[in-house]
Design a protein that fits this description.
By secondary structure, the chain is an alpha+beta fold. It has two domains: 87 residues; 235 residues, Bira Bifunctional Protein, Domain 2 (BirA Bifunctional Protein, domain 2), CATH 3.30.930.10. The strands form two sheets. Strands 1, 4, 5, 6, 7, 8, 9 and 10 form an eight-stranded mixed sheet that branches. A two-stranded antiparallel ribbon has the order 2-3. Helix 1 packs parallel to helix 4, helix 2 runs antiparallel to helix 4 and helix 5 packs across helix 10.
Length: 358
């Protein structure tokens, strides 16, 4: 047996005997590595005469190719065997009861936002989003805020430093700029809700500098206050999970709607529990109104052709009312004990068929 045949026989035997990827890699290094047996033998080719070097070089190259192919085949075999072993041992019986859930909980703000989206999605509303950082036009001017409106002052709005042209970006004070962006980018009919974070200079038991809103916008050729009233009453009934709600609409003023109103919902207190939808007491829930003609004009829509309504509500406030949370500041305190108490099961996704909440 020649030296090449001996190397081939011994190496192929070691390959066949390898039981793991690591053992197989040791064989590869011993045979084909920089200091492997074949590499060492090929270093001696330079001392041979041309004819012998040509013959021996071809033989060693053939041997290298054969051993490399054998290693690849064995590696594939070992990988397939390992996959079969894992498939056989790592099985899951989906008919068994679910394992104990992890400690993570869904934050009430996320839960209530998803509940609101589920309700309005069933009514045919799409979800729209926009940037947290806005310019004056989208946040104020297009929404019919006069130049001297108090909301434009530093005590009410978070402004960034002035640019060279004197303009200032700001943290949006409401999600209404998304209404403007939508009306300027798509033609009616429009039916959207806009969940998102908003920012105002305010902080106490019922206000925080950053809070969450959901606004709604409907623009069409034939839309009136009756549609607005019916939509909001249907929403409140579904959200508070009662058969019907007692509501009233009080005249109010918003720069971007005319006429404008605040919606109150009836409630009663039974012990420490607040029951929404009935009773002789009233609680303000949201603001609403018909979109102001100036806002339509600012967005390139003809108010003689199109009209619509808009509404806005505080997600954090609704969460407090529905789930009996006494202090808004706790929403942002990062207290795991609070979240364990008020949080929601991650698997309980809000939907109208099985119920919005636990």
């Amino acid at each position: 047996m020649s030296e090449i045949e001996k190397i081939e026989s011994e190496t192929l035997a070691r390959i066949a005997a390898s039981q793991t990827i690591a053992a197989l890699d040791d064989v590869r290094v011993a045979a084909l590595g920089k200091k492997g047996v074949i590499s060492e033998r090929m270093k001696s080719l330079g001392k041979m005469d041309p004819e012998a070097r040509k013959s021996a070089g071809a033989a060693y190259n053939t041997l290298k190719a054969k051993i490399a192919a054998a290693i690849d085949a064995k590696k594939t075999q070992l990988e397939n065997a390992e996959l079969d072993r894992r498939l056989a041992t790592e099985t899951l019986d989906v008919t068994l009861p679910i394992a104990p859930l992890p400690k993570g909980r869904i934050h009430p703000v996320t839960q209530v936002t998803e509940e609101i989206i589920a309700i309005f999605s069933a009514m045919g509303f799409d979800v729209a989003e926009g940037p947290d950082i806005e310019d004056d036009f989208h946040n104020f001017t297009a929404l019919n805020f006069p130049p001297d409106h108090p909301a434009r002052e530093m005590h009410d709005t978070f402004f960034f430093n002035e640019k060279e042209d004197g303009s200032r970006m700001l943290l949006r004070t409401h999600t209404s700029p998304v209404q403007i962006r939508t009306m300027m980018s798509q033609k009616p009919p429009i039916r959207i809700i806009i969940p998102g974070r908003t920012f105002r200079c305010d902080s106490d038991q019922t206000h925080t500098p950053m809070f969450h809103q959901v606004e709604g916008l409907v623009i069409d050729r034939e839309t009136h206050m009756g549609h607005l009233k019916g939509t909001l009453e249907a929403f409140c009934s579904a959200f508070f999970e009662v058969d019907s709600v007692k509501t009233r609409f009080r005249p109010h003023f918003f720069p971007f709607t005319e006429p404008s109103a605040e919606m109150d919902i009836g409630y009663e207190r039974v012990g420490n529990e607040i029951r929404m939808g009935a009773g002789e007491k009233w609680m303000e829930i949201l603001g609403c109104g018909m979109v102001h003609p100036n806002v339509l004009r600012n967005c390139g829509l003809d108010p003689d052709i199109y009209q619509g309504f808009a509404f806005g509500m505080g997600v954090d406030r609704l969460a407090m009312l529905k789930y009996g949370i006494p202090d808004l500041r706790d929403f942002f305190a990062a207290d795991a004990r609070w979240l364990t108490h008020y949080g929601f099961d991650p698997l309980d996704q809000p939907n109208l068929s099985t119920g919005l909440s636990r």
